[in-house]
From TrEMBL:
Keywords: Membrane, Signal, Transmembrane, Transmembrane helix. The keyword Transmembrane applies. Residues 1-21 form the signal peptide. This is Ig-like domain-containing protein. It comes from the Eukaryota. It comes from Eumeta variegata. The chain crosses the membrane at residues 868-890. InterPro entries: Ig-like_dom_sf.
Length: 932
């Protein structure tokens, strides 16, 4: 950089703003108008104040011209509004490209209370598209390291601030003198609306003595080229160390290395700087920085001043690098929240902070910030209210605060449709003019909010709603609104660090019972129990542990994996044990730097796969036997199907004399049953079938083979009568296998009817019938429920599906609201005519009810039978003629002559049979002698 001569006037940016010294100026929050998204005219007003008298309104154009607001305002696209008690000054702006720029609406007023003259100024920014950068403040760093905020009244040794606009973020006017010698830095602190990050733009300014007329050298100083490298962002933590290097050029000789700290202080290499160590390498300049404190957070600069030996010129290479330390904190609500459309979303920090003045809210949709207001009831907790949320507000919201170290509290917001039906309706009878103190709402409610018919919040807290009214007024009669949050699930998230190639898994859950432990299961099935401060090989545990607030507990635990390998990729499970039960969650973990390898990517399971715990089981009759399968996903329903068609639906906490559920629960992805008394009826291949929670995946199935010997019951749908020509069904009956030689050989069965093996059907009816269009209709009706959650269909070959994911060739007709599970089979095949199993779950219950359809009887008509006999006869004739032809070809000449003669005789005989015989002629009468 060329040095400046003393006495010269250096104008970084200069603008003159004239205001009356006797008038107090108040600057209001700016208004921004997006031309692309604005709809026609936009009204901009300055609200009226009852204690002030309006003395006139003015408008300042982007070019700096000032006009008095009148009805004949000579500005295209800008019209004056009528002033009232509520509006001191106002304009209507037609949002077009003709009015782009920065406008000022000015209200000149007199305060009745003290007679003072006040000027209120409202900045109006008309722009194309969304402005994503918002200026927070300007700062100047002096040569002695002092940092000062630039305001309208700043004047440091002849350096003063100038007014900013859309084109200039920060600006200063400098009268160069001895007082300003040294290294200065101008800093513009801005906020990116899209991601909420703070951007510090820094402009170094160096003033040093130059060459005056009296001491000027005959040789001009060497020119210096400045090479500015791209800014480098370093995410780190307090106490961590990193290295920054400027690479040496081909013919460059380094003459000086310098480093600039975030406070603006400059140091030459060779100076002792705490936390900064020079590196002796072949590079131009290299340093190692240890982040000792918050003062190390911010914008740095490494400078290498070099001499090009071939050309003799000088070059100055500047490498700016920013040290960022970001820490996660908890927000309320924690991790995620579900809010109905057009409702208000409340968000705040879980723990108050002294740095609340630095708080800002980051939204996934920049336009949503226009609907955000501060919640004055919890200022120290950085509380915000987002009014009337929409579907565009879905995504991650975050509260960010801090001066140097940034603290971020994130919440994933889900906005539901406002037409979503109510879960339940409860009728409560109250007696007028009496006191009421009672609990209402579901027993297991985690959070409850109760509003009276006028929208007044009566209760808002954890647990069931408490209705406490000293005296019931008549106005309480009507519809109340109760909002109840369901049982919260386990929330899991994944963070990656490319710098040290590490993964961080976090697991948290809210519960009303005390959490006790946290454990992880990797994709290979290994269990890792989280203990704070305890590490195992490449795994270390961390987290906030257990916290409590308002009667609710929060368990937060984490697992850090250093140098992750292929065995760490896949679906992880997190389990949180509480005094009452265990909560589970699942998360897919992948590493981009490992998944680039196609061989590794092919081995990673990115979707849940159902697997049996033990695929082969051998047991003896009379013993109990367990069958189970697992899947890395929450399970909605689970059932087992035997080879003979028996269906057993497994539900945690529900058991009978035949079987019971075993496992950690459907939420854990475990489906299992224990047959209490194993019999030969249970031999064969079983299938374990599950449906996942989200319903987007088809039904999963895995097979388990059970071996044994003895006597068993086989449910068959047909019997054959020795004297019958068709199959007849045996409804609700089975056959008993009395003799079974062994598995793997020919099986000899002696069948007899056995009523002890009858299939039990209750509470649900099902039927199967054939339609005139050759399709089939399966009808099932639940007669004891108000509402059902889903229908499940199982074909005779074991293929199953639900009404939510129907395969091709089938059409679900329902409807669930009418408690019907109707299925249309478009083109039925043989397997579709056999008995079906239909299952349904009643809303509010854990177990299922099932029904079995009788087989569909298909009779063969008499016409079809005659047609079959005709075809068989024709086939026999053709075969006979073929045999005769072959015989003639291979017989002797004499035999062929005889055969030809016999065939000709047969032919002639057949021909004569078709000819008419000639009529017989009458013979003449002969007289006897006696007659004569």
């Amino acid at each position: 950089m060329r040095p400046w001569a003393l006495g010269a006037l250096v104008l970084v940016f200069f603008q003159v703003t004239t205001t009356s010294s006797s008038r107090t100026v108040e600057t209001l929050d700016p208004v921004r108008i997006d031309v692309e998204n604005a709809d026609g005219d936009v009204d901009v007003t300055i609200e009226g104040i009852l204690t002030r008298l309006n003395e006139g309104c003015e408008i300042e154009t982007p070019s700096g011209s000032v006009y008095e607001l009148t009805d004949d305002l000579p500005l295209a696209g800008v019209r004056a509004m009528t002033t009232t008690l509520a509006i001191s000054c106002g304009v209507t702006i037609t949002a077009t490209a003709d009015v782009l720029g920065e406008w000022w609406l000015i209200a000149n007023e007199t305060d009745f209370t003290n007679g003072a003259s006040v000027q209120r100024r409202l900045r109006i920014i008309v722009h194309e598209g969304a402005i994503i950068i918002q200026l927070r403040k300007c700062e100047i760093v002096t040569p002695d390291g002092g940092r000062h905020e630039l305001t309208n009244y700043t004047n440091i040794n002849g350096i003063r601030s100038i007014q900013t606009n859309l084109a200039v973020s920060c600006g200063i006017a400098v009268q160069v003198s001895e007082n300003v010698l040294g290294e200065w830095m101008l800093i513009a602190k801005e906020t990116n609306w899209l991601n909420g990050l703070t951007v510090d733009t820094k402009l170094p300014i160096i003033f040093q003595k130059g060459y005056s007329n009296e001491t000027a050298s005959t040789e001009e100083p060497p020119s210096t080229d400045v090479n500015k490298l791209e800014n480098k962002v370093i995410n780190t933590e307090i106490g961590e160390t990193f290295e920054v290097t400027i690479t040496r050029g081909f013919d460059h000789e380094t003459e000086l290395c310098q480093i600039v700290k975030p406070d603006g202080s400059w140091y030459d290499f060779g100076t002792v700087i705490p936390g900064v160590t020079e590196q002796s390498t072949h590079e131009s300049c290299s340093v190692t920085v240890t982040v000792l404190s918050e003062e190390f957070v911010g914008q740095w600069m490494l400078i290498a001043k070099e001499h090009k030996m071939l050309s003799g010129t000088y070059i100055e290479t500047r490498l700016p690098f920013e040290v960022v330390v970001e820490r996660s904190v908890q927000a309320i609500p924690q991790n995620s929240a579900t809010v109905q459309e057009n409702s208000n979303f409340h968000i705040r920090l879980m723990e108050p902070t002294d740095m609340y003045q630095t708080c800002r809210l980051v939204a996934p949709n920049a336009q949503a910030l226009n609907r955000v207001q501060l919640d004055q009831s919890a200022t120290n907790s950085c509380a915000y209210i987002v009014n009337k949320v929409t579907e565009e507000d879905n995504g991650k919201w975050a509260i960010v605060y801090g001066n140097n170290i940034l603290y971020k509290a994130s919440v994933e917001l889900t906005v539901t449709d406002s037409t979503y039906p109510a879960i339940d309706t409860q009728v409560i009878s109250l007696t007028q003019n009496t006191a009421v103190n009672m609990e209402v709402g579901p027993e297991g409610a985690v959070y409850c909010r109760l509003e009276d018919p006028y929208g007044v919040v009566v209760f808002d807290g954890f647990g069931r709603c408490i209705l406490n009214i000293p005296r019931v007024p008549s106005s309480y009669n009507g519809h109340w609104t109760m909002t109840v949050e369901p049982r919260p699930g386990v929330q899991m998230s994944l963070a990656m660090s490319h710098a040290d190639l590490a993964l961080s898994l976090s697991c948290s859950v809210e519960t009303s019972s005390t959490p006790r432990a946290c454990k992880f299961r990797d994709p290979q099935g290994r269990i890792l129990v989280a203990q704070e401060g305890v590490g195992e090989d490449r795994y270390s545990f961390h987290g906030a542990g257990i916290s409590s607030a308002s009667g609710k507990y929060t368990m937060d635990c984490g697992l850090r994996i250093t140098s992750p390998g292929v065995e760490d990729l896949g679906i992880w499970r997190c389990g949180v044990d509480t005094e009452d039960d265990t909560r589970y969650g699942f998360l897919l973990v992948v590493c981009p730097w490992l998944m680039r390898n196609e061989t590794i990517a092919a081995t990673v399971e990115t979707e849940p796969v159902l697997r049996p715990r033990v695929p082969y089981i051998s047991t003896t009759p009379g013993d109990s036997v367990e069958m189970s399968c697992t899947i890395p996903s929450g399970i909605r329903y689970c059932y087992f199907r035997s080879q003979n068609g028996t269906i057993l639906t497994a539900t945690p906490g529900v058991s009978n004399d035949v079987f019971e559920y075993v496992g950690s629960g459907l939420e854990a992805g475990e489906c299992g049953i224990r047959l209490r008394d194993f019999s030969m009826n249970d031999i064969g291949q079983w299938s374990c079938n599950v449906g996942t929670n989200n319903g987007s995946l088809p039904e999963k199935s895995a097979h388990i083979n059970v071996y044994g010997s003895g006597t068993c019951c086989v449910p068959l749908g047909y019997r054959r009568d020795a004297n019958a020509t068709q199959l007849a069904s045996i409804p609700n009956s089975t056959l008993k296998v009395e003799t079974l030689l062994s598995l793997g050989q020919d099986v000899v069965l002696k069948l007899s009817a056995d009523s002890t093996c009858n299939y039990s059907e209750e509470q649900m009816s099902a039927s199967l019938r054939l339609q005139s269009d050759h399709s089939a209709i399966l009808n099932a009706y639940v007669g004891i429920a108000d509402q059902i959650d889903y229908c499940r269909f199982i074909r005779s070959d074991g293929f199953g599906f639900t009404n939510e994911l129907v395969p091709e060739g089938y059409v679900f007709r329902g409807p669930l609201s009418a408690r019907q599970c109707d299925l249309r089979i478009v083109r039925p095949r043989n397997v579709d005519f056999l008995p079906w199993i239909v299952a349904a779950r009643i809303t509010g219950q854990e177990s299922e009810i099932i029904a079995r359809t009788p087989p569909l009887e298909v009779f063969i008509s008499q016409g079809n039978s005659s047609f079959f006999v005709f075809r068989l006869t024709l086939l026999c004739i053709c075969i006979g003629l073929l045999c005769l032809s072959l015989g003639l070809m291979f017989s002797s000449k004499k035999s062929r002559r005889w055969t030809y003669a016999r065939a000709a005789a047969v032919r002639d005989s057949i021909r004569r049979s078709f000819r008419k015989s000639p009529p017989l002629e009458a013979k003449p009468a002969i007289s006897s002698p006696q007659a004569a």
